[in-house]
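Lab notebook, bench 4. Still working through the backlog of constructs that have no structural model yet. Next entry is a single chain of 154 residues. Request: give me the C-alpha coordinates for it.
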Amino acid sequence: MKKKVLIRCLIGAPIGVAISTMITIVISLTAGDGNFYAVVPELIADCGTEINAVLLQAICSLLYGAAWAGASVIWEIDTWSILRQTAAHLIVCSLSTFPIAYFMRWMDHSILGILSYFGIFFAIYFFIWVLQYITIKRRVQQINSKVENNQTEL
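Model written out:
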Protein backbone atom coordinates (compact mmCIF):
# COMPACT_ATOMS: atom_id res chain seq x y z
CA MET A 1 0.00 0.00 0.00
CA LYS A 2 2.79 2.45 0.91
CA LYS A 3 4.55 1.75 -2.38
CA LYS A 4 1.31 2.38 -4.30
CA VAL A 5 0.80 5.71 -2.48
CA LEU A 6 4.40 6.75 -3.23
CA ILE A 7 4.10 5.86 -6.91
CA ARG A 8 0.80 7.76 -7.19
CA CYS A 9 2.36 10.78 -5.45
CA LEU A 10 5.30 10.74 -7.87
CA ILE A 11 2.92 10.59 -10.83
CA GLY A 12 0.56 13.21 -9.38
CA ALA A 13 3.24 15.80 -8.58
CA PRO A 14 4.01 16.79 -12.20
CA ILE A 15 0.32 16.60 -13.04
CA GLY A 16 -0.27 19.17 -10.28
CA VAL A 17 2.27 21.51 -11.90
CA ALA A 18 0.71 20.96 -15.33
CA ILE A 19 -2.78 21.75 -14.06
CA SER A 20 -1.51 24.81 -12.19
CA THR A 21 0.20 26.04 -15.34
CA MET A 22 -2.95 25.50 -17.41
CA ILE A 23 -4.97 27.46 -14.86
CA THR A 24 -2.55 30.41 -15.06
CA ILE A 25 -2.77 30.33 -18.86
CA VAL A 26 -6.58 30.34 -18.76
CA ILE A 27 -6.58 33.20 -16.23
CA SER A 28 -4.14 35.15 -18.39
CA LEU A 29 -6.25 34.57 -21.52
CA THR A 30 -9.37 35.61 -19.61
CA ALA A 31 -7.70 38.87 -18.57
CA GLY A 32 -7.34 39.56 -22.28
CA ASP A 33 -4.58 42.16 -22.02
CA GLY A 34 -1.81 40.05 -23.59
CA ASN A 35 0.09 39.54 -20.31
CA PHE A 36 0.88 36.27 -18.59
CA TYR A 37 -0.15 36.16 -14.94
CA ALA A 38 1.88 33.34 -13.40
CA VAL A 39 0.88 34.13 -9.82
CA VAL A 40 -1.40 36.50 -7.94
CA PRO A 41 0.15 39.91 -7.18
CA GLU A 42 -0.20 39.38 -3.42
CA LEU A 43 2.06 36.33 -3.63
CA ILE A 44 4.72 38.37 -5.41
CA ALA A 45 4.54 40.89 -2.59
CA ASP A 46 4.83 38.10 -0.01
CA CYS A 47 7.82 36.49 -1.77
CA GLY A 48 9.67 39.67 -2.70
CA THR A 49 10.09 38.83 -6.39
CA GLU A 50 8.00 37.29 -9.13
CA ILE A 51 10.45 34.41 -9.69
CA ASN A 52 10.36 33.51 -5.98
CA ALA A 53 6.56 33.50 -6.12
CA VAL A 54 6.52 31.33 -9.25
CA LEU A 55 9.01 28.92 -7.69
CA LEU A 56 6.97 28.66 -4.50
CA GLN A 57 3.78 28.11 -6.49
CA ALA A 58 5.47 25.37 -8.55
CA ILE A 59 6.61 23.59 -5.38
CA CYS A 60 3.16 23.89 -3.85
CA SER A 61 1.59 22.63 -7.08
CA LEU A 62 3.88 19.58 -6.91
CA LEU A 63 2.71 18.94 -3.35
CA TYR A 64 -0.91 19.56 -4.30
CA GLY A 65 -0.79 17.07 -7.16
CA ALA A 66 1.06 14.51 -5.06
CA ALA A 67 -1.45 14.77 -2.21
CA TRP A 68 -4.48 14.28 -4.44
CA ALA A 69 -2.89 11.43 -6.39
CA GLY A 70 -1.73 9.70 -3.23
CA ALA A 71 -5.16 10.09 -1.67
CA SER A 72 -6.71 8.25 -4.62
CA VAL A 73 -5.50 4.98 -3.08
CA ILE A 74 -8.20 5.45 -0.43
CA TRP A 75 -10.81 4.48 -3.04
CA GLU A 76 -9.15 1.08 -3.41
CA ILE A 77 -9.56 0.02 0.23
CA ASP A 78 -12.32 -2.52 -0.35
CA THR A 79 -12.82 -3.25 3.34
CA TRP A 80 -14.02 0.33 3.92
CA SER A 81 -17.55 1.53 3.27
CA ILE A 82 -18.14 4.23 0.66
CA LEU A 83 -18.92 6.63 3.51
CA ARG A 84 -15.60 5.93 5.23
CA GLN A 85 -13.68 6.19 1.93
CA THR A 86 -15.39 9.47 1.10
CA ALA A 87 -14.81 10.94 4.56
CA ALA A 88 -11.15 9.90 4.60
CA HIS A 89 -10.53 11.18 1.07
CA LEU A 90 -12.32 14.45 1.77
CA ILE A 91 -10.34 15.02 4.97
CA VAL A 92 -6.96 14.21 3.39
CA CYS A 93 -7.65 16.35 0.33
CA SER A 94 -9.14 19.31 2.16
CA LEU A 95 -6.39 19.35 4.81
CA SER A 96 -3.69 19.20 2.14
CA THR A 97 -5.40 21.71 -0.15
CA PHE A 98 -6.31 24.43 2.35
CA PRO A 99 -2.79 25.45 3.49
CA ILE A 100 -1.57 25.53 -0.09
CA ALA A 101 -4.53 27.64 -1.23
CA TYR A 102 -4.05 29.93 1.76
CA PHE A 103 -0.30 30.50 1.30
CA MET A 104 -0.61 30.83 -2.48
CA ARG A 105 -3.21 33.54 -1.86
CA TRP A 106 -5.80 31.72 -3.93
CA MET A 107 -8.33 32.97 -1.38
CA ASP A 108 -8.92 36.12 0.60
CA HIS A 109 -7.19 36.03 4.01
CA SER A 110 -10.31 36.67 6.06
CA ILE A 111 -12.96 34.59 7.80
CA LEU A 112 -15.32 35.21 4.88
CA GLY A 113 -12.57 34.24 2.41
CA ILE A 114 -11.88 30.99 4.25
CA LEU A 115 -15.57 30.15 4.55
CA SER A 116 -16.07 30.94 0.85
CA TYR A 117 -13.08 28.78 -0.04
CA PHE A 118 -14.42 25.79 1.89
CA GLY A 119 -17.92 26.33 0.52
CA ILE A 120 -16.63 26.28 -3.05
CA PHE A 121 -14.27 23.37 -2.30
CA PHE A 122 -17.03 21.22 -0.78
CA ALA A 123 -19.49 22.10 -3.56
CA ILE A 124 -17.01 21.09 -6.27
CA TYR A 125 -16.02 17.96 -4.35
CA PHE A 126 -19.68 16.97 -3.89
CA PHE A 127 -20.48 17.60 -7.57
CA ILE A 128 -17.56 15.46 -8.77
CA TRP A 129 -18.34 12.75 -6.20
CA VAL A 130 -21.96 12.52 -7.38
CA LEU A 131 -20.89 12.32 -11.04
CA GLN A 132 -18.39 9.56 -10.22
CA TYR A 133 -20.98 7.68 -8.15
CA ILE A 134 -23.53 7.79 -10.97
CA THR A 135 -20.94 6.67 -13.53
CA ILE A 136 -19.75 3.75 -11.41
CA LYS A 137 -23.32 2.72 -10.57
CA ARG A 138 -24.18 2.60 -14.30
CA ARG A 139 -21.10 0.47 -15.02
CA VAL A 140 -22.06 -1.97 -12.28
CA GLN A 141 -25.60 -2.19 -13.66
CA GLN A 142 -24.22 -2.86 -17.15
CA ILE A 143 -21.91 -5.58 -15.83
CA ASN A 144 -24.75 -7.15 -13.84
CA SER A 145 -26.97 -7.09 -16.92
CA LYS A 146 -24.31 -8.86 -19.00
CA VAL A 147 -23.83 -11.45 -16.27
CA GLU A 148 -27.58 -12.08 -16.12
CA ASN A 149 -27.79 -12.41 -19.91
CA ASN A 150 -24.90 -14.88 -19.94
CA GLN A 151 -26.52 -16.96 -17.18
CA THR A 152 -29.88 -17.15 -18.96
CA GLU A 153 -28.15 -18.37 -22.14
CA LEU A 154 -26.63 -21.31 -20.28
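Notes after review: The mean pLDDT is 92. The chain has five helices and no strands. Flag for follow-up if needed.
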